[in-house]
Amino acid sequence: MQNWVGGTGWSPLRAEFVPPPEDLVPELVDHLAQFISATDGNPVVRAAIAHAQCETIHPFVDGNGRTGRALIHTVLARTGTIRNVLIPISAVFAGSTDACIRGLTAFRAEPADLDTWVMAFSAAASVAAAAATGSVEKVEALDERSRRQPIDFRRARGYSPAAPRRDAVILRVLENLSRHPVLTLEPIAAETGAARGAASRAVDELTRAGVLTRIGNHKGATVGWSADQYLALAGLTSRGDGRCPRAHPP
User: Fold this and answer.
1) What is the pLDDT of residues 156-196, one digit of tens each?
2) Please, what's the largest Cα pairwise distance for the chain?
3) In total, how many domains does the chain have?
4) Is there a single domain that holds both residue 43 and residue 100?
C-alpha cells in the first residue's frame, strides 16, 4: 500500500513527502537492516543515517516515526556507544522543527546532502546525551516495574507460582528491554538462547501483562513488539504533528 506524509487522506498529490513505491520497500528495508547491523564507522553518523533512511522509506502505514527514533537507540547500543541508558532524543528534537525538516529534505535530495542532516542530528544527540545524566536511576526503577508487571498479571489470574522461574525466557527478555526496546522474534530467540516457540510465548505474555505493545503492518500482521514505557522515557514515542521529529539547529 502506497503511503504519504501530509496533504489529504485521499491522495498523495498535495503530500509533503511521498515515500518510495511499495514494490521497492522490501529491498530498501533489507538494505537498511544490513546497514544497522554493521558497527564500523562513526556511530552517531550511522544512527543519523539509519533514522533518516527509515523516515524516508516510510515502510509502515503508522509507527514510522517511533520506529525511526527507536533505531537511533538501537544503533548506539549495538556499537557500545550507550549502555543501560536511554537518551531523550525526541525531547530535544521537540525544540525546533526547522532543523529536522531542512536536514531530512537535504538527505532526500538528489544528490543527497548528508552534512546538513548529520550536523542537525549530532547537535540534537549532544544535547540529549547531556540530558540523559541521571536517567540510569529512572531506567532501574522502570526495570523493577517491568519485572513486577508479569507477576501481578499472573497473580491476578490465579497462576501459581506467580513469579516466573529464574531461568524463564520471559525474565531474559525483560533483562534486555532497556537496550532493545523494539523486538522481533528472531533476535529474541538468538539473544536468550530460546526456541522460537518459547520466545513467542514470552512476548505474548509480556504483551498481555502490558509490558510490550504489538506492532502491526498495514495488513494486520504482527511485525514486532515495543516496550513503550522505555521508549517514552527517552521521548521516542512522541508523535509531533506526523511530519517529522524536531531538532535544535546545529
Assistant:
1) 999 989 998 888 999 999 998 887 888 899 888 888 889 99
2) 61
3) 2
4) yes
